[in-house]
Amino acid sequence: MDRASKDGNPNRRFTLYLINIIILSAVTLFAVASAVITRTRLDRTLQSIEDGQGGSTARLHEVREQVATDARLEVLGEIRDSLEAGESTLSVLRELFPGDIVTYSGGKYYFTSVNPLAAAKTVTAENLVFGEDGSVRTEGAPDGTIVQRGIDVSELNGEIDWSRAAENGISFAMVRLGYVDADGSVREDRRFARNFAGALQSGIRVGCYMELTGDDEETLLAQTRFFADTMEPYGSRITFPAALRISLAEGGEEEAVSLRAQRTEALEKACALLEERGFTPMIGGDLTALSLCADISGLQERDIWYTGADASLAYPYDWTMWQYRSGVPIEGIEGAVELDVYVTVQ
Prior knowledge:
This protein is of the alpha/beta class.
């Protein structure tokens, strides 16, 4: 069933309606809780005043009640204003819970605590200015910040005129090398060799990526060895990272969370394997995959390719590459592609 059919399903619409009702109820409870906290603090303050200076207990009680009411209405008003301004429920939740990575998957919201010991973003979304044509420049970024604009492609992009792509400011390309098919077999991308050669001939620097599946160490390392073996003949011509892209299987959210530590350890070993073979490893994924499938505290030394094409750059940790825009037309490439920015700070 295609996406349009799913979106037109009345049961699906009713389910999403219930989800929104539930999450808005949770937001309301949070607002009430905030008001209660405010009231508790005020109780202590006013009690100390009463003990030290005297005063009317009835009047103090009135003040406490009014402040509690005002606090609750203020929080609810902020939530209402955000929703009326067009912010999604997810965006509102992220504002309310800045200490969590908030994601939505499989009809449920997930809250993953931000690790305060992990490296924060060096370059934020506010430091990057994007043109309508997808161009990118820095503004207010740390001294020595260098940005490069590129694309990631696979056989799904068809035949590519790489010289025209280069003329449009594409300086690097992440070329898909392989993936795991529906039967669980590892496959090489049918256009990998042609895309690799075409990009190089046009003066575009090339990196590679492999789409990984599986949870156990044996499976992930076997897929990584296939990746390394296939890249080996290209050697020094690969001047951008070798990225292991992870994703969350539909309906596998709970299992992903339970296996997060196991998968993180396996990914670290996979990165070490790539280093031993002479490549620069990188972990790629969207916000859901990077928060539910992996624990950043176990991968702090690894470069991250954030593939969530959201303008707010919701990923809270440091990153090296960001797939910042999806579905963009580029001359020389049939159909739309994903644009990436690669950032280094010297």
